[in-house]
Write a structure and sequence with these properties.
The complex is a heterodimer of chains A (183) and B (354).
Chain A (H helix, E strand, L loop, with lengths): L12 E7 L2 E7 L1 H7 L15 H8 L18 H7 L7 H4 L1 H11 L18 H6 L1 H8 L6 H17 L3 H16 L1
Antiparallel strand pairs in A: 1-2
Chain B lengths: L1 H8 L12 E10 L12 H16 L7 E5 L5 H9 L15 E5 L4 E5 L5 E7 L4 H18 L4 E2 L3 E2 L11 E8 L1 H5 L3 H10 L2 E8 L4 E10 L7 H29 L1 H17 L5 H16 L7 H11 L2 H8 L5 H17 L8
Antiparallel strand pairs in B: 1-5, 1-8, 2-3, 3-4, 4-5, 6-7, 8-10, 9-10
The chains are: A mainly alpha (183), B alpha+beta (354).
Bound molecules: zinc ion (ZN) (2 copies).
Chain lengths: 183, 354
C-alpha cells in the first residue's frame, strides 16, 4: 500500500502530472487530496510544492560558487533559497544574480522580460497587443528561438548589463554575440 | 460574519453562461512593493504596512467598488477553506494568516490576496474561456495599482516575485477542463504529454488503477519570463481549443462504441445522487462529472450545467460546515452532502437518452 506523501496515511488518490517531460505521480489520502484541492490553486507543479527550492536547484546546469553569494538587503543566500524556495527581497535579483540566472535558464522561456512595461512593448499600448492575439501566436509557436531572436535577446541583456554597470557581464555577453554572428 | 456567509453562498448568475468541457478559467498576476522584503522574510510590522498601503490603493480603484475585504485571521478554519473551495484564494494563503487580507468582488470573479507569498496576487475568474476580456480587466486593475504603488520592477527581469518561477510577467493563466471522454478512451495520458511539451503544466486527479476520479484537469502556463502576456494567453487559448476538439471527438467515439456503458454509468450516477444518504466528496464529484457529461450530450436540459457547477462547490467539505455553521466530522459531512444532493437531484428531470 502506497503512503500519502503529505501525512503518511494510506494513499487513495494518485495524481499524475507532467513537468518538463518528466511524469511524476503524487500520492495522497482522501483528506489531503481534499485539502490540496481538486480545484484551482497555484499553477505551480504539484510535486514541487513540497520542496520547490530543491527542485529548482536540481534543474540548474552550472554549479554556484560555494560561498560569497548573499543579499546585502535581506541576508538571503543560495542555501536559504534551497530550503524555502523563496527569495527575500527585490534586491536578491541583483545580489544573487548568479543563482537567479541559473534558475531562470533552466525553468523559463527566456532571460529577458517581454511583457508589460518592457522596453520592446513600451510604444504599443497593451490594448493593441491584446488585439493582435491571434497574429502573434503562430510566430511564437516554434519552441526554438531563431538566431535573430537569440541575438536580439542577447543585445537586450547586454544593454541591461551595461546600464547596471556590470561591465564584466557585458564583456561576456559581447563575446557571445560575436560567436553567434560568426556562425 | 453573516454578511460573509451570505456573500459566500450567493449563486453567481454568471455560472449560467457555462459551456461544455471548459469548467472555469483564471488569470493571476503577482506583484510586490519595491520598498519591502517579500512576505516570507518580512517582519510583522512590514507586513502590516504592506497590507495597509495595498488596501488603501485597492479601495480607491473604480473597478473594485462592489466587494468586501476579509482579515483572514478573523476566520474559522472551515471558513478559510471555503474561500479556497470558492476559488477566491489559494491553499497557501490561508496557512499563515498574519496580516493576510482577501478582497473579493460581489460577483466572486475578481479577488486579490494581500500578503500571500507575494505582496499582491490579483486574479480574475470566469466560468467560460475568454482570456481577452479577463486580461483587459486584470490589466486595468494592475494599471491602477502600479500607478499608485511603487511596484518592484526590473527592466531585464520584469516584475520581481518571491519565487523566480513567477518572475517577468508574474502571470499565471489556468483553465479547468472536464475531460471524461478522453479518460474513458484512454487518450488522456498522451494528450497530457503533448500539452506539457509545449511548456504548459497539466494537473489531474486520478483514482487508483485506471478509474478516473472527477475527470477534471487544470492546464496552466509554466513559464512567465521571456514571453509577453498576450503570447502566453494566445498559446494557451489555442491549446485549450484543440483539447476541447479532442474531447468532443472522443465523446462521439464513446457514443458510437460504448453507448450502453455510457447510459448505464450515467443512469446509475443519477440514481446514486437521488437516493444517497451518505456520500463522500470524491464519489459525489464522480457522479456530478457524469451529470455534466449527460448535460453536454443533451440527456439533461442545458440550463442545468450552471447549477451543477454550483453544486460541485456547495458539496465541498468546508462549504457544508459554513452552511451548518459548525465543525462536522467526515461522516456528518457525508450525510449532509447526501441530503443536499438528494434535494437538488429530486428536481432534476429524468434522463432523455437518444
Ligand atoms: Zn494525507
Ligand atoms: Zn534580498
Amino acid at each position: 500500500m502506497e503512503k500519502c506523501q503529505f501525512c503518511g496515511k494510506p494513499a487513495t488518490v494518485h495524481m499524475t502530472q507532467v513537468v518538463n517531460n518528466k511524469t511524476t505521480v503524487v500520492r495522497m489520502c482522501n483528506e489531503c487530496a481534499a485539502k490540496h484541492g481538486l480545484f484551482d490553486k497555484e499553477g505551480l507543479p504539484f510535486a514541487m510544492l513540497s520542496n520547490l527550492g530543491e527542485a529548482l536547484f536540481f534543474g540548474m546546469k552550472q554549479n554556484l560558487p560555494a560561498n560569497g553569494l548573499i543579499c546585502s538587503k535581506c541576508g538571503c543566500t543560495p542555501m536559504s533559497f534551497k530550503e524555502t524556495g523563496r527569495l527575500g527581497c527585490p534586491n536578491c535579483y541583483k545580489d544573487l544574480k548568479l543563482l537567479i540566472d541559473g534558475i531562470i535558464e533552466s525553468s523559463q522561456k527566456g532571460m529577458v522580460h517581454k511583457g508589460k512595461y518592457s522596453r520592446e512593448r513600451a510604444t504599443a499600448t497593451q490594448m493593441n497587443a491584446v488585439n493582435s492575439f491571434t497574429d502573434t501566436s503562430a510566430r511564437k509557436h516554434s519552441n526554438k528561438l531563431s538566431m535573430e531572436e537569440k541575438l536580439n535577446e542577447l543585445q537586450e541583456m547586454l544593454d541591461a548589463a551595461i546600464k547596471a554597470e556590470q561591465y564584466e557581464e557585458a564583456a561576456k555577453l559581447r563575446d557571445e554575440i560575436k560567436t553567434l554572428k560568426g556562425l | 460574519m453573516n454578511d460573509f456567509r451570505e456573500k459566500l453562498f450567493q449563486d453567481s448568475k454568471l455560472t449560467k453562461e457555462t459551456i461544455p468541457v471548459v469548467v472555469s478559467s483564471r488569470i493571476r498576476l503577482a506583484r510586490n512593493l519595491a520598498d519591502f522584503k517579500f512576505v516570507k522574510y518580512a517582519c510583522k510590522g512590514d507586513l502590516h504596512a504592506v497590507a495597509e498601503r495595498c488596501e488603501k490603493i485597492l479601495s480607491s480603484c473604480p473597478l473594485l467598488m462592489n466587494g468586501m475585504t476579509l482579515n483572514i485571521c478573523d476566520l474559522l478554519d472551515y471558513e478559510k477553506l471555503a474561500l479556497v473551495e470558492r476559488h477566491l484564494c489559494s491553499q497557501e494563503f490561508i496557512i499563515e494568516t498574519n496580516e493576510s487580507k482577501l478582497f473579493f468582488t460581489d460577483d466572486h470573479l475578481t479577488s486579490i490576496m494581500i500578503n500571500e507569498e507575494d505582496h499582491l496576487r490579483m486574479q480574475v475568474f470566469r466560468y467560460d474561456l475568454n482570456f481577452r476580456t479577463m486580461f483587459d480587466k486584470i490589466n486595468a486593475i494592475d494599471d491602477h495599482v502600479s500607478e499608485n504603488l511603487n511596484i518592484a520592477f526590473d527592466n531585464r527581469y520584469g516584475f520581481l516575485t518571491a519565487c523566480p518561477t513567477n518572475v517577468g510577467t508574474g502571470m499565471r493563466a489556468s483553465v479547468m477542463l472536464h475531460l471524461p471522454a478522453l479518460v474513458i478512451t484512454k487518450q488522456i495520458s498522451n494528450l497530457i504529454l503533448a500539452v506539457q511539451k509545449l511548456g504548459f503544466v497539466v494537473r489531474g486527479l486520478f483514482g487508483e488503477g485506471s478509474d478516473a476520479q472527477g475527470n477534471f484537469f487544470q492546464i496552466s502556463n509554466q513559464q512567465t519570463l521571456g514571453l509577453a502576456e498576450v503570447d502566453i494567453l494566445s498559446r494557451l487559448t489555442q491549446i485549450i481549443k484543440s483539447i476541447v476538439d479532442y474531447e468532443l471527438n472522443a465523446r462521439e467515439i464513446v457514443k458510437k462504441e460504448k453507448i450502453i456503458w455510457l447510459y448505464d454509468n450515467i443512469g446509475r450516477a443519477l440514481g446514486i445522487l437521488r437516493g444517497c444518504y451518505c456520500l463522500t466528496s470524491i464519489d459525489a464529484i464522480n457522479c456530478i462529472s457524469l451529470m455534466l457529461l449527460a448535460t453536454d450530450l443533451g440527456y439533461l436540459p442545458n440550463i442545468l450545467r450552471g447549477d451543477l457547477n454550483q453544486m460541485m462547490m456547495k458539496i465541498q467539505s468546508s462549504h457544508i460546515q459554513v452552511l451548518e455553521n459548525r465543525i462536522l466530522n467526515s461522516t456528518e459531512r457525508d450525510i449532509k452532502r447526501a441530503e443536499l444532493l438528494r434535494e437538488f437531484f429530486a428536481t432534476v428531470p429524468n434522463l432523455k437518452f437518444d
